[in-house]
Design goal:
Blueprint: E1 4-9, H1 13-16, H2 19-30, E2 34-39, H3 42-51, E3 58-59, E4 62-63, H4 67-91, E5 96-99, E6 107-111, H5 114-117, E7 120-126, H6 128-136, E8 140-143, E9 146-148, E10 154-157, H7 159-170, E11 174-178, E12 184-186, E13 189-191, E14 193-195, H8 196-204, H9 212-224, E15 229-233, E16 241-244
Parallel strand pairs: 1-2, 1-11, 2-8, 5-8, 7-10, 11-15, 14-16
Antiparallel strand pairs: 3-4, 6-7, 9-10, 12-13, 15-16
Helix pairs in contact: 3-4, 7-9, 8-9
């Protein structure tokens, strides 16, 4: 689908919802662009887990998801974070539809490593027909990063992975991975550009770790799958670190 921009909102999602954010989205819409939002919720999930005295365990940037953690994740994403985001968009005059895995199996996934990570999944299939219908009717889909297996088991899927897969399937021209930092940092310097080949190198050097790992790995896969441009940034008005297929010296 032409002229699609996918935005993954991460960190503290409410921090992304500034006046300038909505002005940029409005400008894109006036240019005929189609916008898709994928929201994370890690901050809010961890906050709720601490309140309920449930231990938080992260491995390689992914949340180990027990049965109890999955219940909390679903409650927070569908019951707290998504309504907060959809309400803000509606207040700014946008037509939006909040979506999760139970909406017509929009995201079908499989377990990544059930023994090691619990109910953490990876995306196998996206219902692009539903998304394209919503985009053609001038709606902004706002999607929670949850999936269902073909057997109907719920999965907690990294929001960066979901956003990248949706960008791939919709053949997006741009993908913004919003985070709480202005890009990728190396030796106290923010990188303006990073090639897919450099990502493996920086991973080996442990320059990239934690939550940035799945972000960059997903970005590399999206570029290889045909997404034209991927940006890792904290504001959609700035490109931050641009992920590219061409070689860059870092």
């Amino acid at each position: 689908m032409k002229k699609v921009i996918v935005i993954k909102m991460g960190g503290v999602a409410s921090d992304n919802l500034t006046k300038s954010f909505f002005l940029q989205v409005d400008q894109w819409k006036k240019q005929g662009k189609k916008v898709v939002i994928v929201h994370g919720g890690g901050h809010y999930i961890s906050e709720m887990m601490h309140r309920l005295d449930v231990p938080v365990k992260i491995q390689e940037g992914l949340r180990v998801t027990t049965e109890e953690t999955l219940k909390i994740t679903k409650m927070v994403l569908i019951g707290q974070v998504q309504p907060m985001i959809t309400t803000r968009f509606q207040q700014e005059g946008f037509s939006v539809v909040g979506l999760n895995a139970s909406c017509g199996h929009i995201i079908i996934g499989s377990f990544l490593d059930r023994q090691k990570l619990g109910a953490v999944g990876e995306v196998k299939q996206v219902d692009t027909e539903l998304l394209e219908h919503l985009l053609k009717t001038n709606h902004i889909p706002i999607i929670a990063p949850l999936g269902l297996t073909e057997a109907g088991e719920w999965l907690n899927i990294n929001a960066d992975h979901v956003a990248c897969k949706i960008a791939e399937e919709l053949k997006a021209e741009k993908l913004y991975l919003l985070t709480d930092v202005p890009g990728v940092k190396k030796e106290d310097q923010w990188l303006t550009e990073l090639s897919t080949n450099d990502i493996s190198k920086l991973k080996r050097e442990e320059v990239i770790k934690g939550g940035m790992l799945p972000k960059l790995e997903s970005a590399a896969l999206a570029i290889k799958a045909g997404v034209k441009k991927v940006y890792i940034t904290n504001q959609i008005q700035y490109t931050g670190t641009t992920i590219t297929s061409k070689e860059v010296c870092v």
